Amino acid sequence: MSWWSDFSGFVRENEPMAKHTWLAMGGRSELYAEPPTVDDLARLVKAAGQAAVPIRILGGGSNILVRDEGVSGLVIHLTGEAFEQISITDQSVTAGAGAKLGHLVSQSTAAGLSGLETLVGIPGTVGGALRGNASAQGGDLGQCTQDATVMTDQGDIIKRPRSELVFSYGKSNLDELVILSGTFLLEPAAAEEISRRMQQIWIVKKKEQPMAHQSYARMFTDPRGMDAGELIDQAGLKGTRIGAAEISDRDANYMITDRGATSDDVLKLINLVRSRVLDRADIELELELEVW
Ligand SMILES: Cc1cc2nc3c(=O)[nH]c(=O)nc-3n(C[C@H](O)[C@H](O)[C@H](O)COP(=O)(O)OP(=O)(O)OC[C@H]3O[C@@H](n4cnc5c(N)ncnc54)[C@H](O)[C@@H]3O)c2cc1C
Fold this sequence. Notes:
There is one protein chain. It contains six helices and 21 strands. The chain starts with 10 loop residues before the first strand and ends with a strand. The strands form seven sheets. It has a five-stranded antiparallel sheet. It has a four-stranded mixed sheet with strand order 1-2-5-3, covered by helices on one side. By secondary structure, the chain is of the alpha+beta class. A hairpin with a 2-residue loop joins strand 9 (135-136) and strand 10 (139-140). It folds into three domains: 5-77, Uridine Diphospho-n-acetylenolpyruvylglucosamine Reductase, domain 2 (2-Layer Sandwich); 84-192, 2-Layer Sandwich (Uridine Diphospho-n-acetylenolpyruvylglucosamine Reductase, domain 3), CATH 3.30.465.10; 211-291, Uridine Diphospho-n-acetylenolpyruvylglucosamine Reductase, domain 1. 25% of the residues lie in helices and 28% in strands. The chain binds flavin-adenine dinucleotide. Flavin-adenine dinucleotide (FAD) binds next to strand 3, helix 3, strand 9, strand 15 and strand 17.
């Protein structure tokens, strides 16, 4: 009997990760789970720990590139009702880690609460956004995060108060195995005013992003005080193509892919960009995309 036979209702083998990631490419995960409740999640985490099986948590898959050879160990996807609730009390909004960030933004706005509108259009979940402190146009999720509930790799649940949390560009110290939910303290404002601001932000985003393409992703974080897209452009790489992956000719920090693109194409393109920018500007670009 395998260590996961007790969980066979929601654990399966050889799951194609392309189904669950924004870039829709890459291999399979050895084991894949969608636990229906927090209790099931805790039992699974403990059992995997006892069996020494490595665990990865999947949110919306919008910042993950899965290698063509796939992922060993267990991928846990926080999806379904138990993880996607959003509730609003006065100025405080609590969202499950599996809720879409876009739903958190739109529900807060509709309730006349301001603070999250700069995050409009960022794909993925609240959990992924908390882990990487999603940010845009000078605003980030950390700014209004009041507390977060997490689960350790022992399956214990802990509430982390604001006073313990540290957020910086692309990072947070929410580094326990699982983020379960977050609470955000927002400011009251007129819903029409927030919507107007969101629309303006959305127009700017649409200009930058190559939305007509099959799929696209941002490759690198911006080095301090600089713009990764400009550095890539200055290295003459706009439009460079390897296999079915190409550097966007709008913002060069976006990579676009056509049907048939493989993770190998994308990784080769990333390596080419890194070495050209290093040669030309003496700057080592850091990946924003996480490679599994
Ligand atoms: C078109 C496009 C535009 C983007 N624009 C922006 C932008 O403007 N600003 C920005 O900051 N980002 C941007 N991103 C990157 C991405 O959307 C964000 O990083 C997003 O917050 C990732 O969330 P996710 O749920 O998809 O996480 P995933 O990609 O699934 O995971 C990312 C990381 O978070 C971890 N994680 C996810 N959920 C949990 C959880 N519940 N508990 C513990 N760990 C977890 C994963 O293990 C992984 O390490 C963009 C991406 C795309 C494709």
